[in-house]
Amino acid sequence: MPRSLDLLHAALVILVVSCSRQPAAPEAPTRAAENAPAHAAAASLSLVESWPRETPLDHPEIPDTAAVWLEMIGAATSTLDLGEFYGASVDGEALDPILAAVEAAGARGVRVRFLCDASFYAKEPAVADRLATMPGVEVRRLDLGEGGGVMHAKYFVVDGREGYLGSANFDWRSLDHIHELGVRIREPSTIAVLAAIFAADWAQAGPGGESAASGIRAPGPATIDYRGAPHSIRAVASPRDRLPDPALWDLPALLALIDGAQATIRIQLLSYRVIGYDGERFTAIDEALRRAAARGVQVEVMVADWNKKAPAIDDLKALVQVPKIAVRMVTIPPASAGFIPYARVIHAKAMVVDGRHTWIGTSNFSGDYFLKSRNVGVIVDGEALAADVSRVFGDLWSSPYAADVDPSVTYEPPQVGPPTPKP
To answer: Residues 362-395: pLDDT tens digits?
Structure first.
């Protein structure tokens, strides 16, 4: 489809949001939305999780990522836009039904667009290439390498009416062997922002590499239902210079949450680094957490054991020596079937402040995620969601898999990828 029609589609989504703001017809209740009342179906939020099999970390009342993805893709009638860091599948594993659902959507006339990162495609081309052979499915690769970034977001939009975003990659391991958190969203202004970001990136990845100027402005907070309670939601994203409106930038919003904290901050990430993957120093979040601790806020930071190497471990050792700041690393045991590369890890990206303000997104905490790479997220104000995310956090924090970072210990990095071939 020509680029002009891509932009028209995004503009129509935005126009519907700004002019009508009328709720869609209620959908039949499902497990993914079992706690959302029927009257709020067009403005509702569901928390979504993945958990490593063979651990007791599942929360049966929270819908599983794979089930939610299957339901959303199966319900698509006109468009399905997937913005993904990469795709990875193994025959017989959890992504197979998802790929079959995408293929079925294209076969029934849904226009499917799959956007992935160009640099990671070079390492993991199989899923993107397979999708490209499916009728009704178009694949593009977004190259942000010139600015030092990657297409790191993980989200999709269905029919311009609902979406998913979260930490789970389009990867079989993310569905069965990694701890992930995400959200399913039915709220027009939030979906319009995701649609506009996708349209811009899709155009950038197309012939000529032209950016799409959507004209959308950052909407104000919208009311959304979570488990029968009204919450406030707003979309955030990065990097600043690739947003339809700089007011959507997530970094200032996260810093404001931290600087506004009065009692508690709980953060779960894959990684926390002052020295980023790009080698550049980024202290904004580290300094904000130290300010919070200095005024008496209890700060808890939980990351994966993949951080047991420099420079990440040095940054964590320095942070944990600040009074009122606790840091733990989580080690998930190997699967009984044996070692799985790039799996058995906590990967969620979430923060809860004062038991009321929740951020769920796709960024880890180092500068390159906010300054160079494409990421998306939401900030939700409301006690019910904060309580559920805090419970997920607390179950991990108090589990036998978590251990305090000890500044005096020399840590041995875990095996993350395939074994290095011997010379």
So the answer is: 999 999 999 999 999 999 999 999 999 999 999 9
- Please give the C-alpha separations between residue 61 and each of 31, 79, 382, 398, in angstroms, as whole numbers: 9, 29, 19, 20
> How many domains are there within the chain?
1
Euclidean distance between CA atoms 350 and 357, whole angstroms: 11
Q: What global pTM score does this model have?
A: 0.90
296: buried, middle or exposed (CB in 10 Å: 19+, 13-18, 0-12)?
exposed
Q: Which domain holds residue 29?
A: 3-259+342-397
pLDDT of 248 higher than 90: yes
Find the radius of gyration of the CA atoms of the chain. 20
Average pLDDT of every residue of the chain = 91
Residue 334 lies in a domain: no
Collapsed DSSP state (helix, strand, coil) of residue 286: helix
Is residue 294 assigned to a domain? no
139, part of any domain: yes
CA distances from 117 to 21, 201, 320 (A): 33, 10, 34
